[in-house]
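W.,

You were right to be curious about this one. When I first looked at the sequence I had no strong expectations either way, so I just let the prediction run and decided to look at it fresh. Below is the sequence, 84 residues in total, followed by the output.
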Amino acid sequence: MAEKYYVYMLLTERNTLYCGYSDDVEKRFNEHLSGKGAKYTRANKPLKIVYKKEFSTKSDAQKEEYRIKHKLSKKQKLELINTN
């Protein structure tokens, strides 16, 4: 079975968005919840997964994560969430 990778966004309790990539989004979300995820989500508790998109390669997922994090405004991220 071919591995799949995902780009995901989390909504935090401070109404901010966190973007990451993983091969198991639910497992990664639980790591964020338990304080074992990213430094950002230790300071900004995640509430729920609001976006998830599948990729066939890790490289493609990382490129999309970079694009979302560094090229999109919050408004554009919200539009992306609302159209998926």
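Here's what jumped out at me. Residues 5-82 form a domain with the GIY-YIG endonuclease fold (CATH 3.40.1440.10). And, maybe more interesting for your project: DSSP finds four helices and three strands in the chain.

Coffee later to discuss?

I.
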